[in-house]
Every structure is written in structure tokens, then in C-alpha cells.
Amino acid sequence: MPAKDFYDRLSKGDQAKLNNLFLRMADHGRIANRQKFKQVEGDLFAFKSFRIRVSCYQNGRCWYLLHGFEKKGDDWPRGEVIRGLNLLAEHRGQ
What are 22-76's pLDDT values in tens digits? Predict the structure, then answer.
């Protein structure tokens, strides 16, 4: 469970920021602010809080968290995109 392992290592403050994003998605079904949530590639999306990124995908009405990392630059590192896409394929059983 890479996303849970990453989440558990975060500070309580960073966990609270992500929890607010997760609750907003649960309550409203979307997050319109691209600075907080955006499509990365294909079916891979990301919750964003400052430098923290948690990749996810949607299946029906459910969102599944895949993995997380702390982003250093402006763009997602290609290795993290590939990791997210691989986890997505694995989770879907492809």
C-alpha cells in the first residue's frame, strides 16, 4: 500500500491538508482548483498540497490512492508518472 505508507510518514499538518482535499472530493465529487487536484496522464490524477503529490484514479464513484511523493521541480518526474501508471494497471488487474 504505497499511498498509505507515504501518508503515514507525513507530518500531522500535511496529513490534515490532504484529509481536507479527500473530504472535499467526497463531499462535492470534484475539486475544481487545479492547484489542488489535476489529471496527470490518462486515468492518473493527483491530489496536490504544496510539494506533496498523491496519485489516484477513479472507478465509478470511488477514488483509489496509488502512491505519493514530494515533488521537487515544476513537472512530475517521469519515473513517478510511470510508477503511478504501473500501480494503476496493477490495481485494475491489467
Answer: 999 999 988 989 899 999 999 999 999 999 999 999 999 899 999 999 988 778 8
What CATH number does residue 37 fall under?
A: 3.30.2310
Query: Total domain count for the chain?
Result: 1
Long-range contacts of 44-51 (CB under 8 A, 24+ apart): 44/81, 44/84, 44/85, 44/88, 46/76, 46/84, 47/18, 47/21, 47/22, 48/21, 49/14, 49/17, 49/18, 49/21, 50/17
Whole-prediction pTM value?
Answer: 0.91
Lookup: cell for 26: 467526497
Length of the chain equals: 94
Rounded alpha-carbon distances, angstroms, from residue 91 to 9, 57, 65, 66, 67: 22, 10, 10, 8, 12
